[in-house]
Specification:
heterodimer, A: 680 residues, alpha+beta, 4-stranded mixed beta sheet, globular, B: 3 domains, Ubiquitin carboxyl-terminal hydrolase (chain B), thiol protease (chain B), Ubiquitin_CS (chain B)
């Protein structure tokens, strides 16, 4: 027993401490072997995933003989978005294999999420007006406009999608289909203008998030529309619905593949982005075959290329795949200078960077190549690659070199400094201490930095505290949201939404309400305020955008990738998010996860048990069995977990099979438990 | 013949046989029987994409017991509505104004807020706008001096511009003409134009317009401005010492609300304003004596202007000083007891009708006979009369009667300690019933209850000129 305790202490120290590469891998390897030795399979899996070591994961499954434990392992794999080939060596039993496959493909995620929603009683759909809460704004309630504003309708579309994400019902998009006359269906859809219709149709995907069967049935009718924008939206919706879900029938590929080669570029973008969302992190060979030729086709417009690069980057995220890298590098070299100057061109280096997400020095060769690129994009490439490769590592040297870039004075209007600021946040978000330091030094950048740096700081703060509304950051952003520079104000407003995403935080909601009356005349800023309001109430407060999970130990690469893409898009708010590519907001779907603890029994049916939920305490290096949470309250599962909170079982009747109580946790009955335990 | 299971939405059809010798269209027809989805709407996912109607089953290689997924619904296809909605962003500028719900602001050209706020208040009078739009550009009447003509044209053009734009307008032309006509507004100090008294601007502009907007045809509708704003007063001038008495009639464009120690409310101030003492030579006594002048209203205008006499000349500091006293004013003003006896009797019937109607609105019980009377007449708040030609308005007006009750439509406020400094702002009620604060180029929506809070008693904006609109009733 003592040995186990000691091993746990050692391992938790190993996990927490910051070490530069390659020492970190050594330490993790030791931790892994200790865990394996003491049959702490779930912890061992976390370490293996942290190392991104597929053979170790496989070895674990072979070692672990308990089928119940394997289910738990599969839940962890599903959360991280990793899949494992379940062959005979891993599992012999055919029936068991099917169950494990189902868990691993996230097929039951929607069901679990809806169980949570029913338990908390938030199934009732909400309309954008319920979120705006105009009646609470005193004074200058916005003058009642008699004519629809396309921009405000688009904002309402997004708010509606974010708020009702995953619930399968809402008050704008799904309602009319129930009415008898089919003519009225899609009436809200057509209250959006041109490309706005794409986002509106795609919002169906977000509303039916993870529920592939029901979602596809709803989306089907939009495929037959004669409006290209609606078809674009339907294609995107297919991708969104399938985001994070793996299905043996591969509906996303089957439906989208044909549209990739259509003539209309908006339809192509819809299909390509849909594929990227649906297959993020899967390294699906067929999609590569389909998309790679587009990249090197010089006749294809740059906007299509940009989304292709992003989608391939997503599908092969963190894989260091040479073929994809070659194609993107080729595309970057062959495009003309004017094309590389387009706002969307930033997606090409970003797609390249995503391939090396978290892979540290593996990126070096490619960085050397990018130095030979056109002046216009070369610096941006280097920064994007470096920041992606060291994302979530906390590497001090890279932080310093990025800060060095921020200190330069630019004369030629280059754009890479913004990317450097975001890169800094990406690297520094690794652990709490580095995060606080980063917030402080971003404050310095805000004070002394030039305008193009100031514009990126709110986004960086948003990334550092995503779905984690820290009061000091909230105040900084609130101040910046009134900045004289409208770009800073817009980025700060969106970031207020990001730090409050899925929390229903009343203070941020109040700030945004005040902003909505402050900016009632400025259509662009009001649009940003609305989107932020939608984000704060994401999934009515049941979802999170945080890419970290399992006690902030693991970083989900596709979630991180989704956030990075959006933040880079926010660097040029006016031409991307406020322009006609507002559907880049749907890249956030990659990071959306329920912030719940759901306990299931041995048959994977939800079971309600009492748990203590409280603020997590850092117990590294403390002797004995210290309390891991403080200021806790006892609830019965399913429960919501906020940022920085931890749960532990408050009953001895069950034993949790996972060391970290987050997401789905399998419980088994405690054989030593006696019912009269307390009375005796 | 392999048997497969087909998943469609949440349903699973367990054993569907595939006849591999037939094209897949046959299989789709089988599914049509099961699901009711027509074959052309069915999308069946197989390895490598969608199942094509003419595909070869062998090439696809369906295994026994394989699960296929079908997508498709029999729902009606979403059609693009023929007439899409109209968006604000697509509208031409002048229609955006309607959508925004209020007209544009006016740029401050350097201490011209007194002028901007005056213009915004007058701009809210639709009848004045229509009268101005009928004013001919050329063909100045011989009795009108050229600068008055120019000022009228400039006013007309500026009002037109305010209606067409929703972005702020620069009143440059108007300002230049105003300075030409009234050189006192061109005063400069340290190279800047000085702040002026808004009341002076208001009075002078009103006077000019009353001169220029006289109808050339003296038969009907003699003076538009007088009809709209003119208040006819009858006064009794009375000398205590000699007991002389003489009647007087005059026409003014604004009632004055005098502010003294005992005035707390607009109504009291108005009463004070209608009584005054003056000194003149008495023919009976052969010397100057104090006369008491008591006036009452003999004819009511469509728009009643009230000026709070907040400024007085302070000799020691050599400037117009301000009385900060709080004087409340209502949203609904009743001037019945300020009227002359003859006017009072004329007002009786319309007032009764108005009261009945309001009673009916509130659901009070009434005699049936009265009910019948009340059904026919209708109150006109007058919102629908804008933009009509003046003759049309005149025709209508014959049926409409004054009630002596007025609704507040515009407030011009001043903030600061003297008339020639500080800041002037106009608060104007829109046709939609919403209030807008016109702070130079910024129109800001306000709540109605905040409007009555501009009554003074501090350093906040306080009402200087109020404009009330008559509530009319049909008889």
């Amino acid at each position: 027993m003592d040995q186990i305790l000691t091993s746990q202490c050692i391992c938790s120290s190993c996990r927490q401490c910051y070490l530069p590469s390659p020492d970190d891998m050594l330490v993790l390897e030791i931790a892994f072997s200790i865990y394996i030795k003491f049959e702490e399979y779930t912890s061992a899996l976390c370490v293996a995933l942290r190392m991104d070591n597929a053979p170790y994961v496989r070895q674990l499954f072979v070692c672990c003989s308990d089928p119940l434990k394997k289910k738990q392992l599969c839940y962890i794999l599903a959360r991280q978005g990793v899949s494992l080939d379940l062959d005979d060596e891993v599992i012999g039993n055919e029936e068991q294999r099917e169950i494990l496959q189902e868990i691993m493909s996230n097929a039951k995620l929607s069901e679990g999420y809806l169980t949570l929603a029913r338990d908390i009683e938030v199934m009732e759909p909400k309309s954008p007006d319920d979120i705006y809460k105009v009646h609470l704004i005193d004074g200058r309630a916005s003058a009642g406009a008699s004519v629809d504003s396309a921009r405000q309708n688009l904002a309402a579309t997004f708010v509606n999608a974010f708020v009702n994400a995953g619930f399968g019902q809402d008050k704008l998009m799904t309602v009319p289909s129930e009415s008898s006359s089919g003519g009225s269906s899609g009436s809200w859809l057509f209250k959006n203008k041109e490309h706005g219709k794409a986002s509106a149709a795609a919002s169906l995907g977000l509303i039916h998030l993870w529920d592939v069967d029901a979602g596809l049935a709803q989306i089907d009718k939009y495929f037959h529309s004669n409006d290209n924008h609606v078809i674009t939206g339907a294609l995107l919706a297919v991708g969104i619905v399938n985001c994070g879900i793996r299905n043996e029938c591969d509906p996303a590929y089957a439906l989208l593949a044909d549209y990739v080669t259509k003539d209309d570029s908006s339809i192509r973008i819809g299909a390509i982005m849909g594929l990227g969302l649906a297959y993020a992190g899967t390294q699906k060979e067929e999609v590569l075959q389909l998309l790679a030729p587009i990249l090197i086709d010089l006749k294809v417009p740059i906007e299509v290329i940009a989304f292709t690069a992003i989608s391939l980057g997503l599908i092969y995220v963190g894989s260091c795949n040479d073929d994809v890298a070659q194609s993107i590098v080729l595309a970057l070299m062959e495009r003309s200078e004017s094309e590389l100057g387009e706002p969307l061109a930033r997606f090409l280096p970003l797609g390249l960077g995503l391939l090396y997400l978290g892979k540290q020095e593996n990126v070096d060769a490619t960085i050397e190549v990018t130095k030979t690129f056109n002046q216009k994009i070369s610096k941006y490439c280097q920064v994007a690659l470096m920041s992606c490769a060291y994302a979530g590592t906390g590497n001090v040297l890279k932080v310093q070199s990025l800060l060095g870039i921020c200190a330069e004075h630019l004369e030629k209007g280059e754009t890479h400094q913004g990317a450097a600021v975001i890169g800094y946040a990406l690297i520094a978000m690794a652990e709490e201490l580095g995060l606080d330091m980063a917030i402080r030094s971003l404050g310095h950048l805000l004070q002394y930095g030039e305008q193009n740096i100031r514009r990126a700081v709110p986004s960086a703060l948003g990334l550092l505290c995503i779905s984690n509304p820290k009061v000091n950051v909230m105040d900084t952003l609130s101040r910046l949201s009134h900045d004289a520079d409208s770009d800073v104000a817009m980025a700060a407003t969106i970031s207020l939404g990001l730090i409050g995403a899925g929390t229903n935080n009343a203070r941020i909601a109040g700030m945004l309400r005040n902003l909505s009356s402050y900016y009632y005349k400025d259509a662009s800023l009001l649009y940003c305020v609305r989107i932020a309001q939608g984000l704060v109430h994401l999934g009515k407060g049941l979802l999170t955008l945080a890419p970290y999970h399992s006690d902030r130990f693991l970083l989900s690469p596709s979630a991180a990738a989704g956030l990075i893409i959006l933040l880079h898009a926010c660097l040029d708010m006016k031409s991307i998010v406020l322009g006609k590519y507002h559907y880049v907001l749907y890249f956030l779907v990659l990071a959306v996860q329920p912030r719940m603890l759901m306990t299931v029994d041995e048959d994977l049916k939800p079971v309600s048990v009492p748990v203590r939920v409280g603020q997590a305490v850092d117990v590294v290096g403390q002797a004995g069995r210290p309390k891991t949470i403080t200021g806790f309250q006892t609830h019965s599962t399913p429960v919501l977990l906020s940022a920085g909170e931890r749960a532990e079982l408050a009953t001895e009747k069950y034993l949790a099979l996972s060391s970290v109580l987050e997401g789905f946790v399998v419980l088994k009955e405690n054989p030593e438990y006696r019912a009269d335990h307390h009375s005796s | 013949m392999p048997t497969v299971s087909v998943k469609w939405q949440k349903e699973i059809f367990p054993a569907v046989e595939i006849d591999t010798s037939q094209p897949p269209l046959v299989f789709k027809c089988q599914l049509y029987d099961l699901t009711g989805v027509p074959p052309e709407r069915q999308k069946i996912m197989v390895k490598g994409g969608l199942l094509k109607d003419d595909a070869d089953w062998n090439a696809i290689g369906v295994k026994e017991g394989q699960r296929l997924m079908m997508m498709g619904t029999a729902d009606e296809v979403v059609k693009t509505p023929e007439k899409g909605p109209v968006f604000v962003e697509d509208l031409p500028e002048d229609e955006q104004v309607v959508a925004v719900g209020h007209s544009a602001g006016l740029y401050n050209l350097g201490n011209t807020c007194y002028m901007n706020s005056t213009l915004q208040c007058l701009h809210s009078v639709p009848e004045l706008k229509s009268a101005l739009s009928n004013y001919a550009h050329s063909g100045r009447r011989s009795d009108l001096d050229p600068t008055s003509h120019q000022l009228t044209v400039a006013t007309r053009d500026l009002f037109g511009e305010l209606d067409r734009n929703f972005k702020p307008v620069s009143p440059m032309q108007f300002w230049m003409v105003l300075r030409k006509k009234f050189p006192q507004f061109g005063q400069q100090q340290n190279g800047f134009f000085m702040q002026q008294d808004a009341e002076e601007c208001w009075t002078q502009l009103m006077y000019t317009l009353s001169q220029s907007l006289k109808s050339p045809d003296p038969g009907e509708n003699p003076e538009t401005v007088k009809r709209l704003f003119g208040i006819e007063l009858v006064s009794r001038v009375h000398c205590k010492e000699s007991s002389e008495e003489s009647p007087e009639t005059e026409s003014v464009y604004a009632l004055k609300c005098h502010i003294s120690q005992e005035v707390n409310h607009l109504h009291e101030g108005l009463k004070h304003g209608l009584k005054s003492e003056l000194e003149k030579v008495s023919p009976a006594l052969g010397r100057s004596a104090v006369y008491l002048k008591e006036s009452c209203i003999n004819d009511l205008p469509r728009y009643l202007t009230v000026q709070f006499v907040r400024f007085f000349w302070k000799r020691e500091s050599n400037q117009k000083a301000k009385i900060l006293r709080k004087v409340d004013y209502p949203l609904e003003l009743d001037v019945f007891d300020l009227c002359s006896e003859s006017l009072k009797s004329k007002l009786q019937t319309p007032r009764q009708i108005l009261r009945d109607e309001e009673g009916a609105k509130l659901g009070l019980k009434k005699n049936e006979s009265k009910d019948k009377e009340a059904q026919t007449p209708k109150t006109e708040v007058g919102a629908n009369e804008n933009g009509q030609s003046s003759t049309g308005a005149a025709l209508e007006e014959k049926e409409m009667h004054m009630t002596g009750i007025y609704d507040l439509v515009a407030v011009l406020t001043h903030k600061g300690r003297s008339a020639d400094s500080g800041h002037y702002v106009a608060w104007v009620k829109q046709e939609s019933g919403k209030w807008i604060e016109y702070d130079d180029e910024n129109p800001i929506p306000q709540r109605e209850e905040d409007i009555t809070k501009l009554s003074g008693g501090g350093d906040w904006h306080m009402a200087y000129i109020c404009m009330y609109k008559a509530r009319l009733v049909q008889v």
